[in-house]
Inverse folding.
């Protein structure tokens, strides 16, 4: 059983397009996250949601809009894609937002913008 | 703000031997948590081990153990009896209450048969 799943795993698109990445967790967790891993493997938090409410937005351009229809899903929509958006995007979830709550990651989505 | 530093971009170890990956962090918080994640070529981020800062005892998970030096803000990962499947990127991360994981830059571990 997949705990945190993301679709698609690979996404290749042209500059200027709009695309979405979906994330679902079946762990019953309340908190979900999006991370970006750049070409140098550096991982950085983008957003965090707790029970469908935005908690953290780490100075991400407003072309990126997360949407949480319910606490098991956190989708990422990106408008007007740019070359610099090429990266691997990871969704994660944890039971809560406390420091002690381990985060479990999805398999990642490799986004390539041409 | 927290920072996490992994000073070894790459390490290699002979199969069956022991290797230690270094990590230092900087935080002004008193209550925080430290993690090591493994990222194999499949890209999946897998939790290896975690340590609560308030615990003096070093965490251990089978062949993986940590050397947690709170005063020095050091959190190294020791892998014993290295196996080919241990080859991966390893990320050290920290987190305090109400905040997100902050990752180090990663260490690529190669295991030689």
């Amino acid at each position: 059983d997949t705990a945190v799943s993301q679709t698609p795993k690979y996404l290749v698109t042209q500059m200027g397009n709009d695309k979405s990445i979906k994330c679902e967790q079946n762990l019953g967790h309340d908190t979900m996250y999006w991370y970006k891993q750049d070409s140098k493997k550096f991982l950085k938090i983008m957003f965090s949601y707790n029970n469908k409410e935005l908690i953290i937005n780490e100075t991400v351009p407003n072309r990126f809009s997360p949407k949480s229809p319910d606490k098991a899903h956190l989708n990422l929509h990106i408008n007007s894609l740019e070359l610099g958006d090429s990266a691997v995007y990871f969704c994660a979830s944890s039971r809560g937002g406390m420091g002690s709550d381990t985060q479990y990651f999805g398999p990642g989505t490799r986004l390539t913008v041409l | 703000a927290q920072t996490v530093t992994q000073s070894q971009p790459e390490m290699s170890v002979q199969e069956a031997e022991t290797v230690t990956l270094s990590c230092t962090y900087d935080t002004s918080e008193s209550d925080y948590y430290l993690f090591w994640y493994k990222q194999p070529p499949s890209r999946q981020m897998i939790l290896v081990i975690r340590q609560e800062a308030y615990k003096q005892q070093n965490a251990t998970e089978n062949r993986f153990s940590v050397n947690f030096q709170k005063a020095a803000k050091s959190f190294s990962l020791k892998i014993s009896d290295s196996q080919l499947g241990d080859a991966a990127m390893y990320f050290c991360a920290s987190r305090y209450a109400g905040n997100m994981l902050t990752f180090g830059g990663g260490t690529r571990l190669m295991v030689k048969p």
